[in-house]
């Protein structure tokens, strides 16, 4: 599977980078839960945690945001919580290759 969305320069994964993450997840043919980017960003600014990005049955990929540090965290639920899940490995590798490392996934 070829997933060619590469970022030109590694930067912190802040809220402004959410569209790039969503675009990459779309290349994996996942069921994207974000349909309105501005509403998604506002939710993260207001609430800060647990925005569903992907729904795949009971499995999911979510985002949380720390305003103070401008730190967007991507994390996994249920089946994607398994570190050996192929989709999780692909997503983690893409984030690691394209963004400065955060202290958590």
Q: Tell me the Rg in angstroms.
A: 13 Å
Low-confidence stretches: none
Terminal CA distance reads 23 Å
How many helices? The count is 3
Shape category = globular
- Sheet bearing the most strands, described? 3 strands, antiparallel
Strand percentage lies at: 15-25%
Order of helices and strands: HHEEEH
Overall SS class: alpha+beta
Q: Percentage of helical residues? A: 25-40%
Quick one: how many beta strands? 3
Can you give the mean pLDDT?
85
Spatial sequence of strands, sheet with the most strands: 1-2-3
Write the layout of secondary structure elements.
Elements: H1 18-27, H2 37-46, E1 51-56, E2 59-66, E3 71-77, H3 86-98
Antiparallel strand pairs: 1-2, 2-3
Question: What are the defining features of this structure?
Answer:
105 residues, alpha+beta, three-stranded antiparallel β-sheet
Short description:
With 105 residues, the chain is α+β, with helices and mostly antiparallel strands. 31% of the residues lie in helices and 20% in strands.
Question: What would you note in describing this structure?
Answer:
The protein has 105 residues and is an alpha+beta fold. 31% of the residues lie in helices and 20% in strands. The chain contains three helices and three strands. It has helices spanning 18-27, 37-46, 86-98, and strands at residues 51-56, 59-66, 71-77. A three-stranded antiparallel β-sheet has the order 1-2-3.
């Amino acid at each position: 599977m070829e997933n060619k969305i590469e970022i030109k320069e590694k930067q912190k994964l802040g809220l402004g980078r959410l569209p790039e993450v969503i675009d990459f997840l779309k290349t994996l043919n996942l069921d994207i839960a974000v349909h309105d980017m501005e509403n998604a960003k506002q939710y993260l600014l207001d609430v800060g945690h647990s925005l569903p990005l992907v729904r795949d049955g009971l499995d999911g990929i979510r985002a949380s945001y720390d305003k103070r540090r401008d730190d967007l965290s991507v994390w996994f639920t249920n089946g994607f919580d398994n570190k050996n899940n192929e989709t999780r490995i692909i997503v983690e590798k893409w984030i690691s290759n394209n963004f400065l490392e955060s202290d958590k996934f």
